[in-house]
Amino acid sequence: MNYSALSRSSALHLPNLHSTNPTRSVSLSIRSCIVTQNNAIEGQNLNYSVTTRLGQLTPILKDCSIRIPSGQLWMLLGPNGCGKSTLLKILAGLLNPTSGTLYVKKPKSFVFQNPDHQVVMPTVEADVAFGLGKFDLTLEEVRSRVSRALDAVGMSDYMQRPVQTLSGGQKQRVAIAGALAEACKVLLLDELTTFLDENDQVGVIKAVKNSVDSSGEVTALWVTHRMEELEYADGAVYMEDGRVVMHGNAASIMDFVKARQSSYLNQLKLK
Ligand SMILES: Nc1ncnc2c1ncn2[C@@H]1O[C@H](COP(=O)(O)OP(=O)(O)OP(=O)(O)O)[C@@H](O)[C@H]1O
Predict the structure, then answer these.
(1) Which atom of ligand 1 lies at the shortest distance from residue 60's CA?
(2) Half-sphere exposure (CA, 13 Å, Cβ side) for 82?
(3) In angstroms, what is the span from residue 145 Cα to ligand 1's centroid?
(4) Which pLDDT belongs to residue 270?
(5) What is the ipTM of this complex?
(6) Using one digit for the tens of pLDDT, what is the confidence trace for 91-116?
(7) Please, are residues 47 and 63 in contact by the beta-carbon 8 Å criterion?
């Protein structure tokens, strides 16, 4: 099952102007942005701040701009605490930016890090079909959507398996299949491989890549710490200290991060 359950029309998304986040004290200044049609995600100058218990306004995201072309798999990388998850939650509509402009194609789905939070129904088939209840579909249509979605993530042979017998990565793939069955256009994936062993990691990333490539309509943004996952990406965004530092093809981001790491190591040697 996918938990995103975000709204489903494919229109311009404007964040809710009436924030429910009690930590925010800054008035919102959100305007619609001019959307380039071939981008599934387009955010400009996104800022997000929180107010600490001592009443101090703390910026978490600083003027982040991001553009993800439709039908591609992009990765969002950066050191711990740089703001990746916060940016992803803003794109998902789970948090409202303090200011900036944002468009994300819909339907969009957010898949969480912990595989045990992803699946709730007794069998794989029931779990993938779970979200389809809100559509007016015949049984045949439900079966066909479930079967295509499980095929895309390489889980067709597991249709009748009890979910508690699946590995963490298999549960993640079932969650992604749930999103695909609902005709999700944007997958927002938050460090899915953190709790997985190497085999499971590769299974999940390949499933996402295949879902993106085989449909031509699905776009995925994958938050990760793992540089080796960049080889599957069409492009990547690198963040540091709440800012988007670099935005481009996977190879150039890889070179940039390696250069950053070696300069950091050299600094340590000099100390
Ligand atoms: N509600 C909040 N109140 C205070 N600080 C917050 C809040 N939300 C996020 N932060 C801080 O903002 C920074 C960015 O957090 P975020 O989880 O987005 O980073 P991240 O890059 O995803 O980190 P990681 O890779 O470790 O998961 C961190 O320093 C975090 O402690």
Answers:
(1) 12
(2) 18
(3) 36
(4) 67
(5) 0.97
(6) 999 999 999 999 999 999 999 888 88
(7) yes
Tokens describing residue 131: 């979200």
> Which residue ranges have their beta carbon within 6 Å of ligand 1?
23, 50, 60, 78, 80-86
> 172-209, pLDDT tens digit by residue?
999 999 999 999 999 999 998 888 888 889 999 999 99
Query: Which residue owns the Cα nearest ligand 1 atom 3?
Result: 50
The answer to whether the predicted template modeling score (pTM) of the entire model surpasses 0.80 is yes
Strands (E) across 21-174 are located at: 29-30, 39-51, 57-69, 73-77, 99-104, 108-111
163 within 8 A of 130, measured Cβ to Cβ: no
What three-state secondary structure class fits 209? helix
